[in-house]
Amino acid sequence: MIPRIDVKVDPSFPEGVPMCMPAEDEISEEGYGFFRGVWDISGVTHEEARAMVEEERGLAHLVDQVSTGPEEFEAFAGAVERGDPDALPAGFADRHPDSEILEIVGDGDREEGVLDGLEIGVAGLSFALSSIGCFPAASCRSHTSGRSWSDRPVVYFAAERLTVHWLTPMVRDSGCGFGNGSDRGALLFVEAPSISSLMELANQILNTVERQSFNR
């Protein structure tokens, strides 16, 4: 059960939004755009982005299959991302001792994380955007808990104008929309009613790059 919220998005080309890449001296170890807990993930290759999209899709499917509502989805997703068995719904391990979720979550002492520390639903799009020359600044899949800084799934990024033109039909076809993030710098964002739309957009970006490369 992947959560979906009732929100209208605007997929049209975002006129009036500053579109440029940040200067190197504007990017710190904590990224760009006055966000907390972020880091630089620029320079992702197409192969790395494809691997991230596939990993995310598999994890989202597993969490979707065992969730009965938004609260359970958040609990399972958080447990998977952080490797935190205590975040799983009470009694899950006893009811499903052979679940792949338990194997991924581990015993709380997992050495390797998933999705390079990003969240299910926004990791693939962040990597896909980076792979086409954009600069992902921050992302949030939106949470049922009070710790969510966004009330909808969103990825903030910087991009050149021509790249945004190229992205616009895919944003529309995936059910996403653009927004103005210039209060945090030369940023715009992609938002959606559900992470399903953001994951579809990530897949469309990579498929289009592959198709255009093949036809050259």
Spans of at least 5 consecutive residues with low confidence? none
Largest sheet: 4 strands, antiparallel
Structure summary, number of beta strands? 4
What would you call the structural class?
A: alpha+beta
Radius of gyration: 17 Å
Percent strand:
5-15%
Characterise this structure.
The chain has a four-stranded antiparallel sheet with strand order 1-2-4-3, covered by helices on one side. The mean pLDDT is 93. The N and C termini lie far apart (40 Å). The protein contains seven helices and four strands; from the N terminus they run αααααββαββα. Helices cover 40% and strands 9% of the residues. It is of the alpha+beta class.
Secondary structure layout plus pairing:
Blueprint (H helix, E strand, L loop, with lengths): L45 H21 L3 H13 L9 H4 L4 H6 L17 H9 L3 E6 L13 E5 L2 H13 L3 E4 L7 E4 L3 H20 L2
Antiparallel strand pairs: 1-2, 2-4, 3-4
Short description:
The chain has helices at 46-66, 70-82, 92-95, 100-105, 123-131, 161-173, 195-214, and strands at 135-140, 154-158, 177-180, 188-191.
What distinguishing features does this structure have?
216 residues, 7 helices, alpha+beta, four-stranded antiparallel β-sheet, 9% strand
